[in-house]
TrEMBL record:
Compartment(s): Nucleus
Species of provenance: Angiostrongylus cantonensis (Rat lungworm)
SMART domains: ERCC4
Protein's recorded name: DNA repair endonuclease XPF
Keyword Cell division: no
Predominant localisation class: nucleus
Short name of any one Pfam family annotated for the protein: ERCC4
Length: 362
């Protein structure tokens, strides 16, 4: 169809404004122009009739043209799905809700601050969607390298985020036990955020170890989660359905709270031995005759870190790897001088704990 013919059809339709159109020769291009005219004049009651013989060559030609049109659109959609096109991101941000406390006797409210509230985020968390969601919610995301917690909402609130697929691995390796102990040591309100996501639904069979699975692996994961909650009763647990749901929890937790200090959050260190000298000494001490490193028992390490007075998990690990103490019997029976060389500043509390007289009452 030529351009003149195309515009001629549109011009005639605009001039005549028909309510009934009968097509003796059904042409797909003409039919589409009539549909465009009807879409532009929705107030008109337009009836279209097409005349053709059933199972005729004319009908076959029309159906073939219709199929070619459908195939063309399908090919176009497939090509568009694989094209390298620039992606546009929505940079609009919402306003964060704030509590305005009344000041003065007249009940006037203090004006809201211009600066946005901030949340300190570990740089490794930017592989997830939650920092982006928090930014769109109106929070200033401060990216730093944190050794304790993943998110710091206020000087007293810290959050460790675990996805469902990562939670089971962290429970089995014992990493989440250590992370929880570190948060509880430095923050008054420590939260373990367990976050789900739609992209994990196809990977997890029957919801994973927390929704109906009865295999041995799932029972072990559930038992470890119960052990975590029993060993750290002050740890708060939050289940989240999505990053958007997590952002809503963060908004409620941060409401009317003081802003966190990034320098203080970065200064908090974990219990791992990280200095070069200490690592070298530990590697030298843990070499056996076969030149293989000796690794302490993770379960024993966790229990001793929880129950020995004044000693953290890192202190217990250093003591076990130093080979100055072979077992608990040596630890509780050695003289105070040797105890100072083994555990240094914790010697007094351990000596008092080991030699406490039960017959003495307060």
């Amino acid at each position: 169809m030529t351009y003149s013919h195309r515009y001629s059809i549109l011009r005639q339709l605009e001039e005549m404004k028909p309510t009934v159109i009968i097509l003796y020769n059904t042409d797909i291009a003409t039919l589409r122009h009539i549909e465009m005219y009807k879409a532009c004049h929705s107030e008109l009651f337009l009836h279209i009739y097409s005349l053709m013989y059933r199972e005729s060559t004319e009908e076959s030609r029309y159906l073939t043209t219709l199929k070619n049109e459908t195939d063309a659109f399908t090919t176009l959609f497939n090509e568009k799905a694989t094209l390298m096109i620039p992606r546009r991101y929505e940079t609009g941000r919402e306003e964060v809700d704030r509590l305005q406390m009344p000041t003065g006797n007249d009940g006037a409210q203090a004006p809201s601050r211009c600066e946005r509230p901030k949340i300190i985020v570990d740089v490794r968390e930017f592989n997830s969607e939650l920092p982006t969601v928090l930014y769109k919610k109106g929070y200033d995301v401060v990216a730093v390298t944190l050794e304790v917690a993943d998110y710091v909402l206020s000087p007293a609130i810290a959050v460790e985020r675990k996805a469902l697929d990562d939670l089971a691995q962290s429970l089995q390796s014992g990493r989440v036990f250590k992370q929880s102990e570190q948060m509880l040591r430095h923050y008054t309100n420590s939260i373990l955020l367990i976050e789900s996501n739609r992209k994990f639904e196809s990977k997890i069979v029957n919801g994973g170890p927390f929704q109906g699975e009865l295999s041995r692996h799932c029972r072990e994961v559930r038992a470890l989660l119960c052990s975590l909650l029993r060993s750290t009763p002050k740890l708060k647990l939050i289940w989240s359905l999505s990053p958007a749901n997590s952002a809503e929890y963060f908004a409620e937790l941060k409401l009317n709270r003081p802003e966190p200090d990034a320098d203080h959050a970065v200064s908090l260190k974990s219990d791992e031995v990280t200095s070069v000298k200490e690592v070298g000494d530990l590697e030298a001490d843990t070499r056996t005759s076969s030149d293989k490193p000796r690794k302490p028992n993770a379960i024993l390490l966790r229990h001793m870190g929880q129950h020995l007075p004044g000693m953290s998990r890192g202190d217990v690990q250093s003591m076990m790897l130093s080979q100055k103490v072979r077992n608990l019997c040596d630890l509780f029976t050695m003289p105070i001088e040797q105890l100072y060389t083994a555990v240094e500043s914790h010697a007094d509390r351990l000596s008092l704990f080991a030699n406490f007289d039960f017959s003495v009452s307060d």
